[in-house]
Amino acid sequence: MLIAIAAILCACNEDKKKEIVCWGDSLTAPHGGGSLKGKLRRWLGYNLSYPQYLEGILSDDYRIVNAGVGGENTLTIMARQGAYPMQLAHDVVIFKSDERKYRTIVGNNDMSAFVSSYNGQNVTPLLQCGYDDESPAQVNPCNIDGKQFELSSEAKFWKEDGKFKHEYNYYIEPSAKFESTDTIKAGSVLTTFAMENLRGKYANVLFIGQNGGFDDVADLIKQLQAMISYSQSDRYIVISFHKPNKVIPDYNRMKEMEDSLYQVFGGHFINLRQNLSSDGQGEVEQKWLSTDNLHFNSDGYKRIANLVADKMKELGY
Predict the structure, then answer these.
(1) Global pTM?
(2) pLDDT at 315
(3) Which candidate, 18, 19, 83, 307, has a CA 20 to 30 Å from the CA of 62?
(4) Cα separation of 105 and 94, whole Å?
(5) How far is CA 232 from the centre of its chain?
(6) What backbone torsions phi and psi does residue 147 show, to the nearest 5 degrees?
């Protein structure tokens, strides 16, 4: 009896927690995965992601939802979050359950599975995080045309001739028995778990853009504003990425981007590069970075978590 009461009280306490959803790519994604080794690394506190450190900094009044997935650009992150959902790129036939012999493939390297409702470009969720219950993608279970599905992927990544390459397939399986063969039409919206369950949470942290997905700074701002609007929460923090990329190719352009983000988002904005460089102008100091010179080491992720915690305090969150 006492155990049952305790379980009920714990569940009530969990429901009262202020949930903060952290959206991003590999700079946000949880480290270690769902394997035993990954769980051990997290339990020991070894080189955790910034959301994991943030949860340790904040009081028990908060709960962190890590929705970071490695390799994703802004279009794919928006598609998962719901600001601009993903759509089927072509018709998909779902065969009657007792006649189906193979998993239903919906796309791969050569045939797009999903496109962004923002601009029609390809989006590729799930490639680096899997699709089990612990997946940070927050995609499954998903819904298409009123029917529930599980989306999955098989992906392989390797390095060849100094370049990273990958191959992947997407599969979709109905959660319930299909009594007759049906065709899901191109353009049908895939409604993710996040779209239905992560709206209206207490606050959101948006740390996106390092992998591109936007045309210019104005486009990045438009996408961020769309995510904030869709979240149904006016509590948010925007973190700028810290390394030049194809869209923002040098540090002068980065400074212009950061100035523009500050003008639009004001006190909600964290200028990450400025906070992690020695003079606030140039590159992030090596002491914060891992050996790949892009991701962060433990000290770097702890520093980001503290910046977010300080910003939350400043904003009264």
Answers:
(1) 0.90
(2) 98
(3) 83
(4) 10
(5) 17
(6) -115, 145
**Residue 161: which residues within 8 A CB-CB, separation 6 or more?**
none
Spatial strand order in the sheet of 147-160: 104-108, 163-174, 147-160, 142-144, 189-191, 86-88, 114-116, 122-123
Q: How does residue 134 score in pLDDT terms, banded at 50, 70 and 90?
A: confident
- pLDDT category at 37 given cuts 50, 70, 90 is very low
Amino acid identity for residue 9 in this structure: L
Q: What is the pLDDT of residue 5?
A: 47
